[in-house]
Amino acid sequence: MSGTDKQLLVRAYEAFNARDIEGALATMHAEVDWPNGMEGGRVCGHRQVREYWKRQFSVLDPRVQLTSIERSADGRTVATVRQLVRDLKGNVLSDVTVVHDYVIANGQIERMDIRDPQTQ
Fold it and tell me: For residues 117 and 100, what is the distance between their CA atoms, to the nearest angstrom?
């Protein structure tokens, strides 16, 4: 895996955790295909991802800590993360390990899927 892909994901996670939506979107293709982990389904493109994250951040305080990045046999970039979600009062709602499965091309995130680490 290229160091560039790792750097791209590190930037994306740092921006997400800092609530820098525009910084996170800058790592993504304009028509990115993104999972809506809070409401279900998927969102596509910067506008929909931005709106989804604004809704999410208005009711939850999610943080993701990157623990590993690997290349899968099919060429996808697989990031294992600790996902800590609190309510806006600071109460922990969940603290789990999840897998974020990425398609990265031309230096941009094109798609992300969320998987349970047990199904790898």
Answer: 9
In the chain, DSSP assigns E strands to 28-35, 42-44, 60-71, 77-87, 92-105, 108-115
Q: To which H or E segment does residue 106 belong?
A: none
Read off the pLDDT of residues 35-92 as tens digits, 9 standing for 90 and up.
999 999 999 999 999 999 999 999 999 999 999 999 999 989 999 999 999 999 999 9
- Could you tell me where the DSSP H helices lie in 26-89? 45-59
Q: Tell which residue, 56, 34, 54, 53, has the closest CA to residue 43.
A: 34
Q: How far is CA 17 from the centre of its chain?
A: 10
Give burial (CB, 10 Å; 0-12/13-18/19+) of 115. middle
pTM of the shown model: 0.92
23, 49 contact by CB (below 8 A): no
